[in-house]
Specification:
This protein is of the alpha/beta class. The protein has a domain of 127 residues. The chain has 8 helices and 12 strands. The strands form 4 sheets. Strands 6-2-7-12 form a 4-stranded mixed sheet. The radius of gyration is 19 Å and the shape is globular.
Length: 281
């Protein structure tokens, strides 16, 4: 008999972990920043990385947010074939988010409606939730605090198939060249290629959940990740956009099938304070 994932279990995981994401930089991101600092040769780039690492230490020591923009909350429940998901499994997420943001005194950044009512909701809800059914056994909850600066620097492009591999590269580089400075580099760049207009951005966002620098499972995708990372860092934008060797700590690429007439591409910027975590249920 399959184990059932309930709303209480999901809500508990959100309550126990969401606040920590605001002040505890993930270990893989911190390690990547340290490696970037060791490789950096420019004085401004070194200074920017020193400040980012010092900020991470202070945030952890004092349990203060890494960034004043504590973001929107993205919550993705990923369930394998051996578990059952109750119909209301995500119903308690908003209540948990409101409790954490109020209790931890995190900045509340949600407006009631993007167009007709831009008054603050007062508790950083609603969260943006997703249920994802996968082949991997078990269940896990992905959480991310996504700041406005990095999301505003992201984009979706619907390319013709003739654009090919080079079109993907050009799209990523154009986005980085135009928007990286606003997204707080060094970045983790999530790239999605394939699916449909509404799904390709999700591919890019899920790519940000992978440990920094871990290669894509597909060898061709992994090779393109390396090429993109080299090209992004060759821009010289550097840490804090002050110039240097490291504009991005990693480029992560996720691909999917698509229509014969389409080549969807999405770029989702992750800032130097990529606040995300995955929790087994």
């Amino acid at each position: 008999m399959a184990r059932t994932i309930t709303a209480d279990e999901v809500s508990r995981v959100v309550r126990e972990n969401l606040g920590r994401l605001a002040w505890d930089l993930p270990a893989d991101v911190q390690q990547a920043l340290q490696e970037a600092r060791a490789a950096e040769t420019g004085p401004r780039g070194r200074r920017a990385l020193d400040l980012l690492l010092a900020n991470a230490r202070t945030a952890r020591d004092e349990r203060m947010p890494l960034c004043q923009d504590t973001g929107t909350v993205w919550c993705c429940l990923e369930a394998g074939p051996d578990v059952a998901v109750a119909g209301d499994a995500l119903a308690g997420v908003d209540e948990a988010v409101a409790a954490v943001y109020t209790g931890e005194r995190l900045r509340k950044s949600l407006v009631a409606d993007a167009l007709s009512d831009r008054s603050n909701t007062g508790d950083n809800t609603p969260a943006f939730t997703e249920l994802r059914l996968v082949e991997r056994p078990g269940a896990r909850l992905h959480l991310m605090l996504k700041g406005g600066g990095s999301d505003n620097a992201s984009r979706v492009a619907m390319l013709p198939p003739s654009a090919g591999r080079q079109g993907v590269i050009d799209t990523v580089l154009a986005c980085v060249s135009e928007k990286a400075a606003n997204a707080c580099p060094p970045l983790i760049v999530g790239v999605g290629v394939g699916a449909t207009f509404d799904k390709v951005a999700s591919l890019a966002k899920h790519a940000l959940m992978r440990p920094v620098g871990s290669p894509a499972a597909d060898p061709a995708a992994a090779a393109l990740e390396g090429e993109l990372l080299d090209a992004v860092n060759a821009t010289g934008i550097g840490p804090a956009a002050l110039g240097g060797r490291t504009t991005a700590l990693a480029v992560h690429l996720e691909t999917a099938p698509c229509h014969i007439a389409a080549l969807p591409v999405a770029v989702n910027m992750g800032c130097s304070a990529l606040r995300r975590g995955t929790y087994e249920l």
